[in-house]
Amino acid sequence: MIRVALAGNPNVGKSVIFNALTGAKQKVGNWPGVTVEKKEGICEYKGMKMQIVDLPGIYSLTATSIDEKIARDYILNEKPDVVVDIVDASNIERNLYLTLQLIEMEANIVVALNKMDLARVKGYKINVRRLSMELGVPVVPMVAVKNEGIEELKQAIVYASKNPKKPLIRYNDGVERAISSVQRKVIENSILPEYPSRFVAIKLLELDEDILRKAGISEEVVKGWIS
Amino acid sequence: MDFVSLLAMARYEKIGEIIGRCVERIEKPRTFSDLIDTVVLDKYLVFPYSLY
What we know:
The complex is a heterodimer of chains A (227) and B (52). Chain A is of the alpha/beta class and 227 residues long. Helices cover 45% and strands 21% of the residues of chain A. Chain A folds into 2 domains: 161 residues, P-loop containing nucleotide triphosphate hydrolases (Rossmann fold, 3-Layer(aba) Sandwich); 54 residues, no CATH class. In chain A, helix 7 packs across helix 8. By secondary structure, chain B is mainly alpha-helical. Chain B has one domain. Chains A and B meet through helix 3, strand 7, helix 5 and helix 7 of A and helix 1 and strand 1 of B.
């Protein structure tokens, strides 16, 4: 069984894609300990079964809201085989922010580039192949409300589950130097070894309360590493 | 500047680079309907600056 999580900003067509993938085979409940709806379903494709989990709609993975914390914890702790990042093609700039954060988490991503029709109406011409090369992950153009691209998405999920990718997005030199110095300390001190070291380094630099608490270190220690 | 802001800026910088290489914005020619809309909006719905 391939375990798949659907992630994306609110209003990108996540529910439409979830329904198209799972049909009637859905189960609705709550995430443990909170009253946030959790939808799960099963998708069958060419004799393979996929368990699809619909994550709450989020703009980033900073864990400042319950929704962000649920999504982040699920990806980090449950380690789904594939994370489908649903991107609104007509609002691509804002949506790619979450994509970069998912790449930082070393999630095995497939980008579902939804609402391609709206993007065309807005005058955007997107080079999908180039976008896939730049991000280092598969990108599937879709118009989910018209059921366009659903089969291609299923195919991409199966392919990605067999060929996982962990692309590296490099930022400007100053930021990379800071990440490297903290990442070195993270590796040397075996801080949260169950999580990707670059992700932990980035979150420590951001003084992320959740990661600081889990790592058992203070802000001052991190600031000392940077200076 | 704190690292939350620096990292957010670095991410947007990277997104800008990616979009610059993958997305082309095609300006659509204005239609007669657009022209009518503009005239109606300018004439009747814009804040009357003469009264400001």
